[in-house]
Write a structure and sequence with these properties.
By secondary structure, this protein is mostly helical. Helices cover about 70% and strands about 0% of the residues. It has 27 helices and no strands. Helix 16 packs antiparallel against helix 17 and helix 24 packs parallel to helix 27. It is elongated, with a radius of gyration of 30 Å.
Length: about 475
Amino acid sequence: MTTALYLPEENIDMIAATSVLQQQAADIRTRTINWASYMQSQMISEEDYKAISTLDKSRGTYLAQNSSQVVKTLLNLVSHLSKDSTIQYILVLLDDLLQEDRSRVDLFHETAGKLKQCIWGPFLNLLNRQDGFIVNMSSRILAKFACWGHETMPKSDLNFYLQFLKDQLATNNNEYIQSVARCLQMMLRVDEYRFAFVGVDGISTLIRILSTRVNFQVQYQLIFCLWVLTFNPLLAAKMNKFSVIPILADILSDCAKEKVTRIILAVFRNLIEKPEDSSVAKDHCIAMVQCKVLKQLSILEQRRFDDEDITADVEYLSEKLQNSVQDLSSFDEYATEVRSGRLEWSPVHKSAKFWRENAQRLNEKNYELLRILVHLLETSKDAIILSVACFDIGEYVRHYPRGKHVLEQLGGKQIVMQHLGHEDPNVRYEALLAVQKLMVHNWEYLGKQLEKDNENQKQGAAPIAGKA
């Protein structure tokens, strides 16, 4: 039994009226297929010929009285005919049957079960066709079979199908992207399917596409997918590990469409409300503050919205974020900034008091923050991020006695030194300072060893062998 998430937009049409798929389907409905010629050439049986011909003329009545035959015929035709135009017609007919009455999905499942026929296989096979309409209409039918009935898609088929949707989303200039996103919007309403989507690295794909310039309709659809994922408390707790908050904060600051604003605020609200661990909700609040969401909320408070949900979410988020600011320690602020990957010269970096008190805390959670700084030095192309990361690593080494050793273990020393030749003078300067702090640490250690040696010599003892 599928556990669908019935949300306010449950009645949303599966495909926007302007989408490419819908336009093509309207043309295909007007076609007349010569079923008699298929029967005469023995490509279909007489039984299937009678069923499809009658279905063409009076589908509602005929389906109700001959459900078993209709299901059998449609599965036979989809499985055995190959001509693109005919397959297109059958798919549109089948999709219309499901769209007219959702309960027909169970009818198809039950009848296919009695006939010992697989309902998934024929449509999964069609995903490999060259014709874009056939591929995407099959995908749409699969989503309905998977979400509107009492039967869930088997695990191996599910992983294949979700991987297919993910790959289609990531395909450049895919004219059917709205249709692909609609299928995903349906699938992710079902809790059993959400973890499978995470398992094929789906969230990363959504975030990657959202970080590029996509039109507002696709933007809305993909954020809707994130929203339905956040209704699962475990996924809501893990969501910002994929940098969801920084990306959505950027979109919020640029977006002009009310429905995009509404869905982003709804995601943010779920990220605070749904996690069962209050410390996770607090981290999400701090991340939003760090990404300047409070500023955006104050701008939104000045605007008038017809949608009451927007007003309510703005009030809720403003209160939660302001409370989190009051409870915020300088280390919380620093940790959130590092985790966001968006380092800037905020006051906390240049505070000597902060580093004296907190340098050792970079060791917490198996050196989590220090590892992130090293990773940013390895991967970032942004000169400010590189400069700040070099500076922070230098301060860590300066204020934590074993810092140099830890940094070497993590491969950080070598990466800092690579930036001595960086094209940006500020990066070069901060890398040089960091290297000097690493070296000074050595000299301080050597100085202490020499003092000990001198003391021992005065007392007639053998010098201590030490490695500087």
